[in-house]
Design goal:
Layout lengths: L2 E6 L2 E8 L3 H9 L1 H7 L13 E2 L6 E7 L5 E12 L3 E6 L8 E9 L4 E8 L5 H24 L1
Antiparallel strand pairs: 1-2, 2-8, 3-4, 4-5, 5-6, 6-7, 7-8
Helix pairs in contact: 1-2
Length: 151
């Protein structure tokens, strides 16, 4: 597994290689049961009935994350680009209002493994905030990787 992350006041950039086919990694983002299994890491719970994903341009997604202390976070966004199995561009926010973070996720077939490039930007956090968010995404992607190993 290859894993790199940089974060600064402009956002997060990550590259990760998964020991799984590209279609499987792509589908983990757009299939509610798969998304609910990895988003939030091992300690958070995403009730499957709270996870909706309409993976088409203009389609919405949402999920409720329940943290170990009972805190609930409602996530939502919209798909801006969907190119199966190569690229997703979507927005994400965790509170009501106009502020959202654009995410770009690209999937490159490495012959049985997949290089996933992830970018989050938007300027709604400072460098420390993006560093913390990047650490969270790394935990989420560790959980995604373990789901592929279990399959």
């Amino acid at each position: 597994m290859t894993n790199t992350m940089t974060a600064n006041d402009e956002g997060i950039f990550m590259t990760r290689v998964f020991d799984a086919p590209r279609e499987l990694v792509f589908n983990a983002w757009i299939t509610p049961a798969s998304f609910a299994a990895w988003f939030g890491g091992r300690d958070a719970v995403i009730p499957l009935d709270s996870c909706t994903i309409d993976a088409r341009v203009g389609g919405a997604w949402s999920a409720m994350m329940i943290l170990p202390d009972g805190t609930r976070i409602n996530w939502d966004g919209e798909f801006q680009e969907v190119v199966f199995p190569e690229r997703l561009v979507l927005t994400m926010r965790d509170r009501p209002g106009p502020d959202f973070e654009p995410l770009t996720v690209e999937f490159r077939d490495l012959g049985g493994t997949t290089e996933m490039t992830f970018r989050q930007r938007g300027g709604n956090m400072d460098a420390a905030g993006y560093e913390q968010a990047g650490a969270g995404w790394m935990i989420f992607f560790d959980t995604m990787e373990s789901a592929f190993v279990a399959d």
